[in-house]
From TrEMBL:
Coiled coil: none annotated. Keywords: Signal. It comes from Edaphochlamys debaryana. InterPro entries: Cupin_2, RmlC-like_jellyroll, RmlC_Cupin_sf, UGHY, UGlyAH_cupin_C. Residues 217-283 form the Cupin type-2 domain. PANTHER family: (S)-UREIDOGLYCINE AMINOHYDROLASE. This is Cupin type-2 domain-containing protein.
Length: 295
Protein backbone atom coordinates (compact mmCIF):
# COMPACT_ATOMS: atom_id res chain seq x y z
CA UNK A 1 0.00 0.00 0.00
CA UNK A 2 2.71 2.42 1.05
CA UNK A 3 4.91 1.31 -1.91
CA UNK A 4 2.21 1.96 -4.55
CA UNK A 5 1.46 5.42 -3.06
CA UNK A 6 5.15 6.30 -3.37
CA UNK A 7 5.10 5.15 -7.00
CA UNK A 8 2.14 7.42 -7.79
CA UNK A 9 3.95 10.39 -6.20
CA UNK A 10 7.09 9.62 -8.24
CA UNK A 11 5.05 9.33 -11.46
CA UNK A 12 3.36 12.70 -10.81
CA UNK A 13 6.71 14.37 -10.06
CA UNK A 14 8.20 12.98 -13.29
CA UNK A 15 5.28 14.33 -15.33
CA UNK A 16 5.75 17.75 -13.71
CA UNK A 17 9.43 17.96 -14.77
CA UNK A 18 9.27 19.59 -18.20
CA UNK A 19 11.42 18.31 -21.03
CA UNK A 20 14.26 20.66 -21.94
CA UNK A 21 12.48 21.79 -25.15
CA UNK A 22 9.32 22.61 -23.19
CA UNK A 23 11.40 24.49 -20.62
CA UNK A 24 12.64 26.78 -23.38
CA UNK A 25 9.09 27.51 -24.53
CA UNK A 26 8.51 31.18 -24.11
CA UNK A 27 12.18 32.06 -23.61
CA UNK A 28 12.79 32.77 -27.28
CA UNK A 29 10.46 33.38 -30.21
CA UNK A 30 9.52 29.92 -31.41
CA UNK A 31 6.89 29.42 -34.09
CA UNK A 32 5.51 26.44 -32.29
CA UNK A 33 5.89 25.33 -28.69
CA UNK A 34 4.24 22.00 -27.99
CA UNK A 35 1.49 22.99 -30.42
CA UNK A 36 1.29 26.56 -29.03
CA UNK A 37 2.83 29.76 -30.41
CA UNK A 38 4.38 31.85 -27.62
CA UNK A 39 6.37 34.11 -29.95
CA UNK A 40 4.10 37.06 -29.13
CA UNK A 41 5.84 37.32 -25.74
CA UNK A 42 9.10 38.37 -27.37
CA UNK A 43 7.74 40.28 -30.35
CA UNK A 44 9.89 43.20 -31.34
CA UNK A 45 8.83 46.79 -31.84
CA UNK A 46 9.43 46.30 -35.55
CA UNK A 47 6.62 43.77 -35.67
CA UNK A 48 4.29 46.33 -34.18
CA UNK A 49 1.77 45.90 -31.41
CA UNK A 50 -1.62 44.53 -32.40
CA UNK A 51 -3.80 46.88 -30.34
CA UNK A 52 -6.54 46.44 -32.92
CA UNK A 53 -6.68 42.73 -32.09
CA UNK A 54 -7.10 43.28 -28.34
CA UNK A 55 -10.65 42.32 -27.36
CA UNK A 56 -12.62 45.38 -26.31
CA UNK A 57 -9.71 47.72 -26.96
CA UNK A 58 -10.32 50.90 -28.93
CA UNK A 59 -8.75 54.35 -29.07
CA UNK A 60 -12.17 55.69 -30.08
CA UNK A 61 -13.37 58.23 -27.57
CA UNK A 62 -16.46 60.45 -27.46
CA UNK A 63 -16.73 63.70 -25.51
CA UNK A 64 -19.03 66.71 -25.45
CA UNK A 65 -16.63 68.77 -27.60
CA UNK A 66 -14.73 66.20 -29.66
CA UNK A 67 -14.62 62.58 -30.75
CA UNK A 68 -12.00 60.24 -32.14
CA UNK A 69 -13.38 57.38 -34.20
CA UNK A 70 -10.90 54.64 -35.10
CA UNK A 71 -11.26 52.24 -38.02
CA UNK A 72 -12.35 49.48 -35.61
CA UNK A 73 -15.42 51.49 -34.56
CA UNK A 74 -17.02 52.05 -37.95
CA UNK A 75 -20.41 50.47 -38.41
CA UNK A 76 -21.74 50.28 -41.98
CA UNK A 77 -25.45 50.23 -42.80
CA UNK A 78 -27.82 50.93 -45.66
CA UNK A 79 -28.86 54.55 -46.16
CA UNK A 80 -31.88 56.04 -47.95
CA UNK A 81 -30.80 57.47 -51.30
CA UNK A 82 -27.85 55.09 -51.68
CA UNK A 83 -28.24 51.84 -53.67
CA UNK A 84 -25.80 48.93 -53.48
CA UNK A 85 -23.77 50.94 -51.03
CA UNK A 86 -23.15 50.94 -47.29
CA UNK A 87 -22.48 54.06 -45.26
CA UNK A 88 -20.69 54.61 -41.94
CA UNK A 89 -21.69 57.93 -40.37
CA UNK A 90 -18.79 59.29 -38.37
CA UNK A 91 -20.09 62.78 -37.62
CA UNK A 92 -23.71 63.93 -37.72
CA UNK A 93 -26.12 66.41 -36.13
CA UNK A 94 -26.94 63.53 -33.74
CA UNK A 95 -23.77 64.53 -31.86
CA UNK A 96 -24.33 68.25 -32.24
CA UNK A 97 -22.49 68.92 -35.50
CA UNK A 98 -23.82 71.26 -38.20
CA UNK A 99 -22.82 68.71 -40.86
CA UNK A 100 -22.65 65.02 -41.64
CA UNK A 101 -19.45 63.20 -42.49
CA UNK A 102 -19.59 59.61 -43.65
CA UNK A 103 -17.69 56.94 -45.51
CA UNK A 104 -19.40 55.03 -48.29
CA UNK A 105 -18.49 51.57 -49.46
CA UNK A 106 -20.05 51.61 -52.94
CA UNK A 107 -20.43 48.12 -54.39
CA UNK A 108 -20.48 47.17 -58.09
CA UNK A 109 -23.23 49.13 -59.88
CA UNK A 110 -23.90 51.15 -56.75
CA UNK A 111 -25.43 54.63 -57.00
CA UNK A 112 -26.66 57.66 -55.09
CA UNK A 113 -29.69 59.85 -55.67
CA UNK A 114 -29.24 63.61 -55.29
CA UNK A 115 -29.18 64.73 -51.64
CA UNK A 116 -32.42 65.86 -49.99
CA UNK A 117 -33.76 69.31 -50.96
CA UNK A 118 -31.68 72.09 -49.46
CA UNK A 119 -28.72 69.83 -48.69
CA UNK A 120 -25.31 70.31 -50.31
CA UNK A 121 -22.87 67.44 -50.74
CA UNK A 122 -19.12 67.14 -51.17
CA UNK A 123 -17.61 63.82 -52.30
CA UNK A 124 -13.93 62.84 -52.21
CA UNK A 125 -13.08 59.57 -53.97
CA UNK A 126 -10.59 57.59 -51.87
CA UNK A 127 -10.64 54.33 -53.83
CA UNK A 128 -11.97 53.05 -57.15
CA UNK A 129 -14.01 55.15 -59.56
CA UNK A 130 -17.39 56.84 -59.61
CA UNK A 131 -19.25 59.02 -62.12
CA UNK A 132 -21.34 62.13 -61.65
CA UNK A 133 -24.33 61.77 -63.96
CA UNK A 134 -25.54 65.20 -65.11
CA UNK A 135 -27.82 63.97 -67.93
CA UNK A 136 -28.47 60.99 -70.19
CA UNK A 137 -25.23 61.43 -72.13
CA UNK A 138 -23.35 63.69 -69.79
CA UNK A 139 -21.27 62.17 -67.01
CA UNK A 140 -17.98 63.02 -65.36
CA UNK A 141 -15.60 60.31 -64.24
CA UNK A 142 -14.15 60.70 -60.74
CA UNK A 143 -11.08 58.60 -60.00
CA UNK A 144 -9.22 58.26 -56.69
CA UNK A 145 -8.07 61.60 -55.26
CA UNK A 146 -10.68 63.60 -57.17
CA UNK A 147 -13.73 65.32 -55.72
CA UNK A 148 -17.07 66.84 -56.66
CA UNK A 149 -19.31 69.41 -54.99
CA UNK A 150 -23.09 69.21 -55.47
CA UNK A 151 -24.95 72.46 -54.66
CA UNK A 152 -28.33 72.28 -52.88
CA UNK A 153 -31.26 71.08 -55.01
CA UNK A 154 -29.02 69.48 -57.64
CA UNK A 155 -30.46 66.80 -59.91
CA UNK A 156 -27.07 65.18 -60.47
CA UNK A 157 -26.66 61.59 -59.35
CA UNK A 158 -23.61 59.45 -58.65
CA UNK A 159 -22.85 55.92 -59.80
CA UNK A 160 -20.02 53.42 -59.84
CA UNK A 161 -19.58 50.46 -62.17
CA UNK A 162 -16.86 48.59 -60.28
CA UNK A 163 -17.26 50.04 -56.79
CA UNK A 164 -15.61 52.89 -54.92
CA UNK A 165 -14.67 54.13 -51.45
CA UNK A 166 -15.96 57.65 -50.80
CA UNK A 167 -15.75 60.28 -48.11
CA UNK A 168 -18.89 62.45 -48.06
CA UNK A 169 -19.63 65.76 -46.29
CA UNK A 170 -23.18 67.12 -46.28
CA UNK A 171 -24.96 69.97 -44.62
CA UNK A 172 -28.11 72.05 -44.88
CA UNK A 173 -27.20 75.04 -47.04
CA UNK A 174 -27.35 78.31 -45.15
CA UNK A 175 -25.27 80.89 -46.97
CA UNK A 176 -28.04 82.29 -49.22
CA UNK A 177 -25.76 82.61 -52.25
CA UNK A 178 -25.38 80.77 -55.54
CA UNK A 179 -22.95 77.87 -55.16
CA UNK A 180 -22.36 75.86 -58.34
CA UNK A 181 -21.38 72.28 -59.17
CA UNK A 182 -17.61 71.83 -59.33
CA UNK A 183 -15.13 68.99 -59.49
CA UNK A 184 -11.37 68.58 -59.59
CA UNK A 185 -8.22 66.68 -58.76
CA UNK A 186 -6.76 67.25 -55.29
CA UNK A 187 -3.22 67.48 -56.65
CA UNK A 188 -4.22 70.16 -59.18
CA UNK A 189 -5.70 72.39 -56.54
CA UNK A 190 -3.16 75.20 -55.87
CA UNK A 191 -1.13 75.45 -52.68
CA UNK A 192 -2.15 78.44 -50.57
CA UNK A 193 -0.03 80.64 -48.31
CA UNK A 194 -0.06 79.49 -44.67
CA UNK A 195 2.57 81.56 -42.83
CA UNK A 196 3.42 81.27 -39.95
CA UNK A 197 2.27 77.67 -40.43
CA UNK A 198 4.57 75.27 -42.28
CA UNK A 199 2.04 72.68 -43.46
CA UNK A 200 0.92 72.66 -47.11
CA UNK A 201 -2.68 73.76 -47.62
CA UNK A 202 -5.23 73.29 -50.38
CA UNK A 203 -8.88 74.42 -50.28
CA UNK A 204 -11.11 72.44 -52.60
CA UNK A 205 -14.07 74.87 -52.78
CA UNK A 206 -14.14 78.54 -53.80
CA UNK A 207 -13.50 80.94 -50.93
CA UNK A 208 -16.52 83.13 -51.53
CA UNK A 209 -19.62 83.94 -49.50
CA UNK A 210 -21.63 81.62 -51.82
CA UNK A 211 -20.25 78.68 -49.83
CA UNK A 212 -20.88 77.95 -46.17
CA UNK A 213 -18.12 75.37 -45.78
CA UNK A 214 -14.82 74.41 -47.31
CA UNK A 215 -12.78 71.23 -47.47
CA UNK A 216 -9.07 71.59 -46.79
CA UNK A 217 -6.29 69.16 -47.62
CA UNK A 218 -3.37 69.58 -45.20
CA UNK A 219 0.08 68.00 -45.66
CA UNK A 220 2.75 67.81 -42.93
CA UNK A 221 6.27 66.44 -43.09
CA UNK A 222 7.25 64.29 -40.08
CA UNK A 223 8.16 66.65 -37.24
CA UNK A 224 5.95 69.52 -38.48
CA UNK A 225 3.16 70.72 -36.27
CA UNK A 226 0.40 73.33 -36.07
CA UNK A 227 1.89 76.64 -34.98
CA UNK A 228 -1.40 78.12 -33.81
CA UNK A 229 -2.94 76.33 -30.82
CA UNK A 230 -6.32 76.80 -32.43
CA UNK A 231 -9.54 77.62 -30.63
CA UNK A 232 -12.30 78.83 -32.98
CA UNK A 233 -16.05 78.79 -33.50
CA UNK A 234 -15.80 76.69 -36.68
CA UNK A 235 -16.53 72.98 -36.58
CA UNK A 236 -14.34 70.29 -38.11
CA UNK A 237 -14.74 66.77 -39.49
CA UNK A 238 -11.29 65.31 -40.15
CA UNK A 239 -10.10 62.08 -41.76
CA UNK A 240 -6.42 61.18 -41.53
CA UNK A 241 -5.56 59.92 -45.02
CA UNK A 242 -1.86 59.17 -44.52
CA UNK A 243 0.73 59.11 -41.76
CA UNK A 244 0.56 59.28 -37.98
CA UNK A 245 1.05 61.73 -35.16
CA UNK A 246 -0.45 63.18 -32.00
CA UNK A 247 -3.74 65.12 -32.01
CA UNK A 248 -4.49 67.30 -29.04
CA UNK A 249 -8.24 67.84 -28.50
CA UNK A 250 -9.13 69.79 -25.37
CA UNK A 251 -7.03 68.29 -22.57
CA UNK A 252 -6.65 64.91 -24.28
CA UNK A 253 -3.67 63.87 -26.42
CA UNK A 254 -4.41 61.13 -28.93
CA UNK A 255 -1.89 59.05 -30.90
CA UNK A 256 -3.55 58.91 -34.35
CA UNK A 257 -2.92 57.12 -37.62
CA UNK A 258 -4.30 56.91 -41.15
CA UNK A 259 -7.97 55.92 -41.09
CA UNK A 260 -8.74 57.75 -37.84
CA UNK A 261 -11.55 60.30 -37.98
CA UNK A 262 -12.07 63.27 -35.65
CA UNK A 263 -15.00 65.53 -34.87
CA UNK A 264 -14.18 68.92 -33.36
CA UNK A 265 -16.98 71.00 -31.88
CA UNK A 266 -16.80 74.82 -31.75
CA UNK A 267 -14.00 76.12 -29.54
CA UNK A 268 -12.33 72.81 -28.74
CA UNK A 269 -8.59 73.52 -28.37
CA UNK A 270 -6.87 71.66 -31.22
CA UNK A 271 -3.27 70.97 -32.17
CA UNK A 272 -1.46 68.39 -34.28
CA UNK A 273 2.11 67.16 -34.63
CA UNK A 274 3.07 64.82 -37.48
CA UNK A 275 5.37 62.03 -36.26
CA UNK A 276 6.74 58.74 -37.56
CA UNK A 277 8.77 58.45 -40.74
CA UNK A 278 6.19 59.30 -43.40
CA UNK A 279 4.27 62.53 -44.14
CA UNK A 280 0.76 63.15 -42.83
CA UNK A 281 -2.11 64.16 -45.06
CA UNK A 282 -5.55 64.92 -43.69
CA UNK A 283 -8.80 66.16 -45.16
CA UNK A 284 -10.87 68.47 -42.97
CA UNK A 285 -14.33 70.06 -43.21
CA UNK A 286 -14.59 73.61 -41.90
CA UNK A 287 -17.73 75.75 -41.84
CA UNK A 288 -16.93 79.21 -43.15
CA UNK A 289 -18.38 82.59 -44.06
CA UNK A 290 -21.65 82.07 -42.19
CA UNK A 291 -22.05 84.65 -39.45
CA UNK A 292 -21.90 82.65 -36.19
CA UNK A 293 -24.71 84.87 -34.85
CA UNK A 294 -27.00 83.54 -37.58
CA UNK A 295 -25.87 80.03 -38.34
O1 LIG B 1 -8.17 75.80 -40.66
C1 LIG B 1 -8.23 75.20 -39.60
O2 LIG B 1 -9.01 75.55 -38.71
C2 LIG B 1 -7.29 74.00 -39.40
N1 LIG B 1 -5.92 74.44 -39.44
N2 LIG B 1 -7.57 73.28 -38.17
C3 LIG B 1 -6.96 72.07 -37.89
O3 LIG B 1 -6.14 71.57 -38.67
N3 LIG B 1 -7.32 71.47 -36.75
MN1 LIG C 1 -9.06 74.39 -36.91
Amino acid sequence: MRVSAALVVLALAAAAVPALADELCGLKPTPSCGGHDYSGVFRTHERGLDFGELPGFTRSSHHADHALIGVESRVYAGQRGWKKALTAHIVSPARGANFAMYLVDVKEDGSAEPPKAGVERFVLVLQGEASVVRGKKDSIKLSANTYAYFPPNTTFTLESEDGAGLLVYERVYLAGGKPVFSHGDVEESPLLPTEPEVFKLRKLLPQTADYDFNVHIMDFQPGEYLWVKEVHYNQHGLLLLEGKGIYRLGDSWYPVQAGDAIWMAPYVPQWYAALGSTPTRYVIYKDTTVDPLLG
